[in-house]
Structures are given as C-alpha cells and as structure tokens.
Amino acid sequence: MADFKHIKREGNSYLVNQYKSLQHVIVIAWVLISIVLIFYTSYLKTGIILLIFSLLLTIISFIPPRVCFDPLSKSLTVTNSGLKRTTFTYHFDDFEGFELQTIRMGFIPLGCFLYANFKNVSQLKRPAVSQSFSKKTMQEVVNELEDLKLFNETPNH
Fold first, then answer.
1. Phi and psi, residue 141, nearest 5°
2. What is the pLDDT of residues 45-65, one digit of tens each?
3. Higher local confidence (pLDDT), 121 or 140
4. CA-wise closest residue to 7 among 88, 62, 95, 67
5. Which regions of the chain does DSSP assign to beta strands (E)?
6. I need a surface site. Which of 51, 125, 134, 157 has the fewest CB within 10 A?
7. pTM attached to this predicted model
C-alpha cells in the first residue's frame, strides 16, 4: 500500500492529520495582543488576565480531535481531547459521503472544513474530519480516504 500524505496508518486504523485553521490564528493573535498590553502599555492587569485566558484557549484549541477510520470494525471514531473528553463512533453502513465547506468573507477564504455525513446524524452534530486554510488540502484528504476504499469494501471469498 502506498504512503499517504494526509493519513497515517496506526495499527489497523488510519489516523487523519489535523491542520491549523482560522481559530488557531485568532487565538495566537490574542496571545500577542495580551503580551503587547503587558509590556508596552499601562494596562498590566488587563494584559495579564487576557494572557491567562488566551493561553487557556490556546491549550484547548491546539488539541485537535483524533479522527480514526477503522476498516476492520467498519467505523469512524472521533475522540475529543479537550476539557470534555468524549468519543463518538459512527458505522460505515450509515455513511452518506463527505462534504467540503469553505467559509469566506467576501472573496477571502477563511478556512475549509471536511465533514463526514451520516444518515442518523444531524447537520449540526456531524463529525469534522479535518480543517485547513486551503480547499486543495481538504480535497487531497478526501481523495486519500477514497483511495483506501473504506466505505465500499466487499469481502473476498
């Protein structure tokens, strides 16, 4: 099996790489703003409070969910590793397809999200497989997942 650029094999499952996106840039900007407030203005207390909250947000936002495709159990497992550690498992039998959603402000793309659509999951609770600034990266992730043939595997007898 060929090596993939965006997916790595871990045992019997495949782990999808996570990329930085707009929310990461915003949190970094808040950290930098708080540092400027502390060192270059007279708003020391405000800067310290802003720095503490932005560092907490940084810690939370830089822990992306762990998204694993397991061909043996025919399931997608999403493990959130933030403050509320939850694991969601979706079966491939209910899989309907992938959806790329690009968020734009006018003509400026702010980010692209790759969602997996399942039959019994609402649009608000569907799993986000990965995110990035570029639509091209997310399309490459979709192509690699389709190359794995996880969803339309037929057993050979």
1. -65, -45
2. 999 999 998 888 777 766 778
3. 140
4. 67
5. 7-10, 13-16, 66-70, 75-80, 86-91, 95-105, 108-118, 128-132
6. 157
7. 0.77
Tokens of 101: 């959603």
Number of other CB atoms surrounding residue 141 within 10 Å: 23
Q: In what order do the strands lie in the sheet with 128-132?
A: 95-105, 108-118, 128-132
Using DSSP's 3-state secondary structure scheme, residue 75 falls into strand
Confidence of residue 157 (pLDDT cuts 50, 70, 90): very low
- Sorted by sequence, the CB contacts under 8 Å of residue 86 that are 6+ apart come out as 79, 80
User: What is the dihedral angle through the alpha carbons of 97, 80, 15, 28, rounded to the nearest 10 degrees?
Assistant: 100
Q: CA 16, 120, 143 angle in degrees (round to 5)?
A: 30
Nearest of 123, 122, 101, 114 to residue 144 by alpha carbon? 114
Residue 155 has pLDDT above 70, yes or no: no
Q: How far separated are the first and last CA of the chain, in Å rounded?
A: 21
Give the pLDDT score at 151.
62
Q: Match 């309907």 to its residue by tokens.
A: 96
Res 4: pLDDT = 83
Give the amino acid at 153: E
